Amino acid sequence: MSRETPPAWSKRSLAAQAMGHIDPLTKAVVPPIHLASTYIRDPDNQYSSGYCYGRPDNATVREAEAVLAMLEEAPAGALLFGSGMAAATAVFGALDPGDHVVAPTVMYWALRRWLGQEATRWGLKVDFVATDDLNALRAAVIPGKTKLVWLETPANPLWTITDIAAAAEIAHAAGARLAVDSTAASPVVTRPLALGADVVMHSATKVLNGHSDVIAGVLAGARIDAFWARIQSVRSSQGAILGPFEAYLLLRGLRTLHLRIAAQMAGAAALAERFAAHPYVLAVLYPGLPEHPGHAVAARQMEGGFGTMLSIRVKGGEAAAIGTAARVALWKRATSLGGVESLIEHRASVEGPGTPCPPDLLRLSTGIEDPDDLFADLDAALRGAA
Ligand SMILES: *Cc1c(COP(=O)(O)O)cnc(C)c1O
């Protein structure tokens, strides 16, 4: 059966079936994993299948990329990388020496460190600014010199919100591109490309895969142009493509993305509300709370929820925070986020000197467990129960 126009199935339906692709050889509803590193050349010297070698391209990787491009509604498509860091650094790698870059003061710490220490060695000039303050962002962007504005929203670990549409206007007016690390939002909740971004990046290690068993990163592009081609060339020449087995696991995870994220966001919202009224909690950082400084912008640019992440500041300072994390049982003391199991982390210990993260902060990644159990476990830990 063929159709003139594809039916208007929702993204949730398309993701659940991984775009409905059926293996033509076997009619399998789950695609095979294409492990080959090389492909037969045709007698006429062409590669009619479109594949020639595993470093530039892979069919299993393409399957996962198709779902991600659909979720982001990305005209240029999506590119998968071996990690979120590989995806992010490919964007900066597509710039030229001397280019000026503006990045947020509150952002994923490993990328902030790379921008401060490594990117400058490649000749990039990097300025960090509080991007949630649009006047500060406007002042930091240098017309003609700034080639890229990098945002992260909500941003680790304070869940700072930046207005993507307003930042896109500021960047574009100066002749710069806008890239958004949308890991904490996910494509279910925010679509930066529709808000004016040129490139969106995710650590697919997090909620996209959702099961804490893959390291992966993805970029989705607003248009196929010279910059996108350069990003593609960076991935291919630096060998940063995701492996086929990881792509398969990610494809499997994406099938349940909408269900997982709905449950995780509902849990995060319930926990934020309950911990906001907790006698041992100084503050809850969660964009869904009206008192969060980014709440109004978040309510506008996030759809259906405020993400799966929140942080709490524990009364009693750093020792009380570390002590609380030591006493949990259901929450797992580990880094990373977005998985089905809830994680707790004393973030300042990870980020080290120079971090904007307060020492009394615990970062909470809400999984799919019963929110009542999650509350009771952390409540007991806050109260010092052994
Ligand atoms: C984890 C993370 C990254 C880095 O991704 P990796 O897959 O660990 O390389 C980048 N940005 C954010 C917001 C993250 O949470």
UniProtKB/TrEMBL annotation:
It comes from the Bacteria. GO terms for biological process: cysteine biosynthetic process via cystathionine; transsulfuration. SUPFAM superfamilies: PLP-dependent transferases. One of its GO terms (cellular component) is cytoplasm. Its EC number is 2.5.1.48. It is an enzyme of class 2 (transferase). The modification N6-(pyridoxal phosphate)lysine is found at residue 206. One of its GO terms (molecular function) is pyridoxal phosphate binding. Its cofactor is pyridoxal 5'-phosphate. Keywords: Pyridoxal phosphate, Transferase. PANTHER family: CYSTATHIONINE GAMMA-LYASE-RELATED, TRANS-SULFURATION ENZYME FAMILY MEMBER. Belongs to the trans-sulfuration enzymes family. This is Cys/Met metabolism pyridoxal-phosphate-dependent protein.
